[in-house]
Amino acid sequence: MLQMSFTSPSHLRLGASATALALMLMTSPAIAQTSAPADQTTAPAQEEDIVVTGFRASLSTALAEKRQETAAVDSILAEDIGKFPDSNLAESMQRIPGVALARGDGGEGRNISVRGLGAQFTRVRINGMEGTSQTGGSDIFGAGNSGRSFDFNVFPTEIFSALTVRKTPSADVEEGSLGATVDLTAPKPLDTGKPFVFSATARGVWNELSKKVDPRASMLVSKQFGDSGFGILASAAYQKRNLREVGYSAVDLLPANVNGGFCSPVGYTPQNPATSAAKGTDALNCSTGNPRTGSVAAYQAIQDLRRADAPNIPGSGAFFPRIPRYVNSEQDQERIGGTLTLQFKPDDATDISLDLLYSRFDVTRRDNYIAGLSFARSISNNGQPMVSVRDVEFDENGSLVYGLFDGVDVRSEGLVDHFVSTFKQANLNFKRRLNDSLEISGVFGLNQSVWDGKKRLQTFMDVIDSDNFSIDYRGGGTVPTIGFGFDVANPGAFTYAPSLADGTVLGGFSFQGRPQKNTTDNFTGDVNLKWTVSDAFTLRVGGQYRESRFHLVSLRPYSADLTVRPLPAGTSLADITTQITGLDNLWGHGAPASWAAIDADRWAEAFDFDSVRFCGSECGGVDTRVNEEIKSAYIMGTFDLGDRLGIGLRGDIGVRYVKTDMRSSGYIQVTPPAGTTSPTNLIGRYASATNSYDDWLPSANIVIEPTRNVLIRLSGAKVMARPELGLLAPTSGVNAVTRTGSINNPYLDPIRANTFDAALEWYFRPGSLLSVAFFYKDIKSFIQNINSQIAFSELGLPNALLEGSNTAPTELFNISQPFNTPGGPLKGIEVNAQVPFTFLPGFLRNFGALANYTYASSKIDYCLASSGGACTVSTRDDLIGLSKNTASGTLYYEDKKFSIRGTVNWRDRFIRGIPASQGSDIQGNAPTLYVDASASYNVTDNIKLIVEAQNLTDEQNRLYIDSTRQDTLFETRIGRTVSAGVNVRF
Predict the structure, then answer these.
(1) In the chain, count of helices (H) and strands (E)?
(2) pLDDT-wise least confident of 94-108, 432-446, 844-858
(3) Which terminus in the chain has less CB density within 10 A, N or C?
(4) Which of 55, 306, 322, 5 has its CA nearest to residue 903?
């Protein structure tokens, strides 16, 4: 409990007016009613004690910490021991100005961007030690994370007591961030203020799509042992969730010409596809048993649409969903976490603690799709050129409005993805005041993050040449109604068998790069010395050694075990399938009431999945390692001149030197020859690389207090962020048939920037703040994947990769490779307000509000193609991941018994990728608005009832392609989530 005593101010009218202007939560009449009469403004103030607990106490404490810091720092603190304000760490940070949330599967907060800079530019420290956290995910949300981005959803919130976002650097804080440094802190036993604490919370969590109630529980025990100065604290948290996500996916949007156009109508010249006895194509048939039924008018409408950059290519301006499909995704999650802290403070000069932390996130995701597949297939597997167009309609931008087709292949696809993310850390923190002027402190620790992708199995069954297939956007909205032309719930309509000689695919399976394991081991050793020279000046010096070891291993099955076999004798598709139901009610948009899908467990039993053989790099698997060794030292002076100059002046000035040595190795993959039954006689080789660079990183933070309760903050620094780990392994892969490939670049330099920040903060009442901040980052360099045409002989790869492809070493390949490219400026403003309405009469004084708004702008030149080391095609656009506008607002009420609050978070559209596919400039994310709420009631001093709700407005996230057309790539519904529980505390 935090107790504060303050005197009611005489400038009530000014405070209320400022609050109204910043928050727009109070009307003019309300302000007038709360203003003191003019003849009373000079009356003696009445002093009163206000007891502040819970959410309001956490806000007040965080604000006090922000005010005392010289750097720009914002914090979220626990409302009570074992009670973090939100159910997800990343979602908590949405209330911090400049922080935007990136959601993953099921709408759960996964990582953050700060001031327009994505997750890869944000460093995270746990109990003072840098950590990494990686999970898997669906492809649309970036699949598995094997880089530096920190996935917050690995951890239960209950094991932490505070998170702090540091937006401006100082020399004593490790380098590596362009956006922010986030500190996660677990509770300590001697900080609780009580000899013994026990807190336990149990909840039931219900989601309107999954229709299930899932358990969530946590417990914390803290004990101080008399006057010994020793304490121990243990916490544990458990959560099990069943998530369901339903919606629509297009996978991509492609112009009609990409896969060879459509089947031309009877009599149309030129005929497409050309006559082929092997394919069964002639003047009357698109393929064997698939007659030409298309309309000349519809076919010609497609041919006439041509992009300005491809005026001579028929159909280049007619855009179709690549794989239009309905989506059903279900997840079983189990999240376990715990901490154990031993703390020893024998006197006021010594503080030693040993912190142990563990978290485990176990996820099995089952995705099912019912899709039109032909629009993604070329003539080689009897795809789009074998589809007749009976009717078609486009809008003015070339986006499909309606289409009716014959000869469309339909697929029922299932994907099972099972991964386990674990995080373990042990660190020893110490601080010892040697005398009145000298203090030594440090941290030594180890942590390990493991993402173990145990299985990623895809199974599918197909219907070939379905007629009356339709895609219809005419009902309005952003997603179509899909008609499949047959009863998709009937498993007997589908086939599962080996492919035919003419390229027809009749069903099958794939392993999609699993099993796979990413392991990152970190060691940190840090020692700091603080010398208090005088009351006004302190000198800090220190050194740090960090080592990070990243290891990625991916196995692959023997080629012979990837062969699709017929169904076992006596087994029908009905025996190994299940029904996907409920999308017609949960999603609508014409989704079928049910469709047949392969049951992965029955399929595995029927085909003896356990007998599949896997091998490593010796047969084309992945084995890459990156080892970073970082040595750094700093010197920094902090000063506080008080009001010696007539104004308050304090700050820090220092410089950090850092030396980075990188070693990496990887196995250059060679595709095994067709029919290989064992990992023998395969060609491949290891490659290794080293790189080294150093940086001098000066920084300064100045705080000026020209008048009481008004602060001016100024900050300037040089900063750097290292390249993604996965890009540094010297690995490559090429396709000799398509003459394409990708090559990593272990010689990438870090991204460097010069930064400047300025802020004005007014702490006009206790627990209150109005502020505005300006930030500018001159990003000197960026890292982009650039496509270049390079002769195979210049790639440094073995010629054995070309065997059987009829490709000569002198031929050009289209190669994608990451390079350092010029950056650009990023600038923006933040406006922030925190106001408890203690100036209002009666129960209204228990209300309060938070609000913030951030505008960020940055333009980067993206190189789309290069030749001879020079960029030949480029475009200029927003920085990837940057939302120009973000805002958050919270209105709360809290008294001794009851607490309730609602939070609104809005994020503007942002770019997910540049370039996009042919004919489209970007992949983007549409704006989102999420509304959450929570309430609690203290039944007694020891028992509290809790109710929480997320996504009250049933917001749906939409991804799109192309800045002009904004065709929907992906849109899903996650539904509302409500939890109710009880907290017991002694």
Answers:
(1) 7, 51
(2) 94-108
(3) N
(4) 55
Give me the residue label for tokens 């923006």. 828
Asked whether residue 10 carries a pLDDT value surpassing 50, the answer given is: no
Could you write out the DSSP letters of every residue in 177-191?
-SSEEEEEE---GGG
Closest alpha carbon to 146 in 450, 349, 584: 450
What pLDDT does 611 receive? 79
Burial class of residue 16, CB neighbours in 10 A (0-12, 13-18, 19+): buried
**pLDDT tens digits, residue range 421-443?**
999 999 999 999 999 999 999 99
Would you give the DSSP letter of residue 152? Answer: G
Could you give the CA distance from residue 546 to residue 691 in angstroms, rounded to a whole number?
16
Cα(154)–Cα(448) distance, rounded to whole angstroms?
13
- pLDDT-derived band at 733 (thresholds 50, 70, 90) equals confident
Q: What is the mean pLDDT of residues 455-459?
A: 89
Interacting residues of 312 by C-beta distance below 8 A, sequence separation 6+: 306
DSSP states of 187-211 as a string? --GGGSSSSEEEEEEEEEEEETTT-
3 state SS of 77:
strand
Q: Which regions of 345-376 does DSSP assign to beta strands (E)?
A: 350-372
- DSSP for 542-604 reads EEEEEEEEEEEEE-EE-GGGG---PPPTT--GGGGEEEEE-HHHHT-TT--SEEEEE-HHHHH
d(CA 550, CA 449): 9
Question: Mean of the per-residue pLDDT values for the chain?
Answer: 86
Report, as an integer, the average pLDDT of 332-346.
95
- Cβ atoms of 227 and 186 closer than 8 Å: no
**Who contacts 271 (Cβ-Cβ below 8 Å, separation ≥6)?**
264, 283
How far is the first Cα of the chain from the last one, in angstroms, to the nearest whole number? 14
Q: How far apart are CA 326 and CA 323, in angstroms?
A: 10
pLDDT tens for residues 230-257?
A: 999 999 999 999 999 999 999 999 999 9
How many whole angstroms separate alpha carbon 184 and alpha carbon 154?
13
Q: Which of 248, 255, 251, 261 is nearest to 398 (CA)?
A: 255
Scored b (16 or more CB within 10 A) or e, 893-922 reads bbeeeebebbbbbbbbbbbbebbbbbbbbb
Residue 139 makes CB contacts below 8 A (sequence gap 6+) with none
- Other CB atoms closer than 10 Å to residue 875's CB: what's the count? 13
> Which run of H or of E encompasses 16?
helix 12-23
Per the listing, tokens 């010197």 go with 635
At 260-314, the pLDDT tens digits run 999 999 999 999 999 999 999 999 999 999 999 999 999 999 999 999 999 999 9
Angstrom distance (rounded) from CA 611 to CA 600: 15
Q: How far apart are CA 812 and CA 476, in angstroms?
A: 46
Residue 811 is predicted with a pLDDT of 80
Token pair belonging to 315: 């159909």
Task: State how far Cα 267 lies from the chain centre.
Answer: 52
- Amino acid letter, residue 344: F
